[in-house]
């Protein structure tokens, strides 16, 4: 029964993708892209990936849309119609689709328990997590402990991308643009209803973010999702009260400290393991009981991830929003 | 019938991947290219999550007191979880470059930029 | 058993409301009537669906989570509709009670 629903959602996904490419209004395209992300999150949930679905819904549908809209406000809203030369790409793309579909019949069927992907390390993770780390959410265990190096790398990619955006956008514009700051910075201050409801919701969004952060060992969640959710809450505050109020609440220096401090915290946990006589990012030595040591390490590095992601997304948002 | 539907996820992966690629190569607008790029990225995510699914399994969160429960493969989920957040950061970097291009050339259309930069 | 039947009735009713809203959003003649169709049925549909799912879940932690989701939806849905209508009005789209366009397409 669920497969019918999945096929319906996947078909909608393809239709939305076609609509994104066909429309010439970029604002419409960005909004359709948010719908695309939400459909993708639903599909992830059907495919048993609750953590990934939560991340896609918070990041793909929430933060990405806001950043795209910020960029649209600085560039153009309408795309020029293409004049010529669309048949060659179309032919190449169609042929490639047919080749991939032909090749897909050599793939394992969806949900095949004997597929090669399920034979290598995954059974070991599923079997030994209860013994070595003793937390229910295996995704968090693999993310933070077994593949800690990988996650450390990803956190530093987020860090580097944030620094890159700040480098590119903190240079003042060459031509002085027409000043519309007084109109722009007031946000939605004169709209009573969104403001009242927004003020009501922002604390609960933070609360939910913290729940996702600290419940990540037991249910879907963790630092990546929590950072994105808390960043969304602050972006909502910025949209309601104006850019200046949000920067007043969390100044840029604090944001930079969050971006650097979170990544540092992650690295320091690894170094602490080395000082205590283990390997880099080996949490077992953090406590006399290796299992509790592992849990301590996971909580610490998840906190580092959450702080970095939240700080980086907010810095990127402010960099785009301040530009005009 | 259901045997064939087992491959449907791969076909959607192929279609979305190539729709995104078409937007990257055939559209001149730089923001449209970035939208296509993030769509291409999402298609790859779908492929990985499809590989992690096991029939009759549930999300890989251990349940106490339940015997013989099978779980989906956590490893691809971890890879994609981190890749989504990295994806939005790199997209933001691309958008920052587009904003600077707009300020330097006054346009974000590929042909106009090529014209403006001269031979 | 009774609870099961009740929850299915609620779920089907909710689905029907959302479907009607979707048809209305496609078929209505202008922006404001479309928004009207989508927003009202959306609120009713979400109440019915969430209450139906609550009947299925029984009295547990899931019920409280669903109640929270319901309150969240009831707060944000109408607010989003208001913000949309307000933005349309500010950008110069006047609501018209009886348009030629409406007559010709109905």
Average pLDDT score of chain B: 89
How would you sum up the global shape of chain B? Answer: elongated
What's the helix count of chain A? 13
Order of helices and strands of chain A: HHHHHHHHHHHHH
Q: Helicity of chain A, in percent? A: over 70%
Taking pLDDT < 50 over at least 5 consecutive residues as the criterion, the unreliable ranges of chain A are: 179-185
How many domain regions of chain A? Answer: 2
Descriptive overview:
- The complex is a heterotrimer of chains A (324), B (119) and C (106).
- With 324 residues, chain A is mainly alpha-helical.
- Chain A has helices at 2-22, 26-46, 50-74, 87-104, 122-132, 138-146, 148-169, 181-184, 192-214, 223-241, 243-249, 252-275, 290-322.
- Chain A has two domains: 1-80; 128-172 and 184-324, no CATH class.
- Chain A contains 13 helices and no strands.
- Chain A is globular.
- Chain B has a single domain (2-53, 71-117), classed as Helix Hairpins (Orthogonal Bundle).
- Chain C is mainly alpha-helical.
- In chain C, helix 1 packs antiparallel against helix 2 and helix 2 runs antiparallel to helix 3.
- The N and C termini of chain C lie far apart (45 Å).
List keywords for this structure.
heterotrimer; B: 119 residues; mainly alpha; Helix Hairpins; elongated; C: 106 residues
SSE blueprint and pairings:
The complex is a heterotrimer of chains A (324), B (119) and C (106).
Chain A: H1 2-22, H2 26-46, H3 50-74, H4 87-104, H5 122-132, H6 138-146, H7 148-169, H8 181-184, H9 192-214, H10 223-241, H11 243-249, H12 252-275, H13 290-322
Helix pairs in contact in A: 1-2, 2-3, 3-10, 3-13, 6-7, 6-13, 7-12, 7-13, 9-10, 10-11, 10-13, 12-13
Chain B: H1 2-5, H2 8-26, H3 30-52, H4 74-105, H5 110-117
Helix pairs in contact in B: 2-3, 3-4
Chain C: H1 2-27, H2 31-57, H3 61-90, H4 100-105
In short:
Chain B has 119 residues and is mainly α. Chain B has 5 helices and no strands. In chain C, helix 1 runs antiparallel to helix 2 and helix 2 packs antiparallel against helix 3.
């Amino acid at each position: 029964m669920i497969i019918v629903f999945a096929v319906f959602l996947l078909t909608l996904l393809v239709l939305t993708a076609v609509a994104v490419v066909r429309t010439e209004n970029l604002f419409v395209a960005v909004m359709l892209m948010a719908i695309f992300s939400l459909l993708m999150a639903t599909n992830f949930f059907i495919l048993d990936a609750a953590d990934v679905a939560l991340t896609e819904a918070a990041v793909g549908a929430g933060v990405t849309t806001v950043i795209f809209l910020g960029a649209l406000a600085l560039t153009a809203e309408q795309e020029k119609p293409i004049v010529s030369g669309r048949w060659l790409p179309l032919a190449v793309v169609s042929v490639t689709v047919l080749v991939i579909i032909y090749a897909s019949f050599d793939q394992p069927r969806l949900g095949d328990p004997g597929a090669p992907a399920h034979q290598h390390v995954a059974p070991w993770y599923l079997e030994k997590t209860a013994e070595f780390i003793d937390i229910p959410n295996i995704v968090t265990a693999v993310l933070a402990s077994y593949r800690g190096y990988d996650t450390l790398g990803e956190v530093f990619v987020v860090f580097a991308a944030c620094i890159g955006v700040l480098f590119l956008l903190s240079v003042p514009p060459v031509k002085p643009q027409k000043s519309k700051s007084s109109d722009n910075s007031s946000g939605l201050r004169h709209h009573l209803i969104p403001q009242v409801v927004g003020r009501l919701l922002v604390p609960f969004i933070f609360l939910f973010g913290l729940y996702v952060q600290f419940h990540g060992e037991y249910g879907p969640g963790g630092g990546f999702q929590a950072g994105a959710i808390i960043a969304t809450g602050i972006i909502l505050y910025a949209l309601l009260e104006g850019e200046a109020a949000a920067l007043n609440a969390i100044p840029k220096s604090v944001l930079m400290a969050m971006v650097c401090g979170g990544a540092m915290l992650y690295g320091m946990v690894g170094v602490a393991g080395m000082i205590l006589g283990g390997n880099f990012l080996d949490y077992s030595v953090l406590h006399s009981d290796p299992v509790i040591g592992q849990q301590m390490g996971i909580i610490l590095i998840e906190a580092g991830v959450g702080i970095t992601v939240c700080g980086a997304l907010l810095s990127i948002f402010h960099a785009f929003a301040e530009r005009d | 019938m259901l045997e064939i539907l087992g491959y449907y996820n791969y076909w959607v992966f192929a279609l979305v991947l190539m729709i995104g690629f078409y937007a990257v190569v055939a559209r001149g607008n730089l923001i449209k290219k970035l939208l296509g790029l993030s769509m291409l990225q999402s298609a790859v995510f779908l492929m990985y999550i499809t590989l992690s699914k096991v029939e009759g399994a549930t999300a890989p969160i251990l349940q106490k007191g339940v015997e013989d429960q099978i779980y989906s493969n956590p490893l691809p989920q971890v890879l994609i979880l981190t890749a989504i957040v990295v994806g939005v950061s790199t997209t933001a970097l691309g958008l920052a470059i587009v904003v600077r291009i707009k300020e330097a050339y006054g346009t974000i259309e590929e042909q106009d930029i090529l014209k403006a930069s001269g031979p | 058993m009774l609870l099961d039947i009740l929850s299915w009735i609620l779920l089907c009713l909710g689905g029907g409301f959302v479907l009607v809203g979707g048809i209305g959003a496609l078929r209505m003649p202008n922006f404001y009537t479309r928004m009207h169709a989508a927003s009202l049925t959306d609120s009713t549909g979400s109440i019915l669906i969430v209450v139906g799912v609550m009947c299925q879940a029984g009295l547990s932690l899931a019920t409280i989570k669903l109640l929270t989701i319901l309150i969240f939806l009831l707060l944000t849905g109408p607010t989003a509709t208001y913000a949309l209508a307000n933005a349309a009005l500010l950008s110069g789209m006047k609501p018209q009670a009886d348009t030629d366009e409406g007559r010709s397409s109905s």
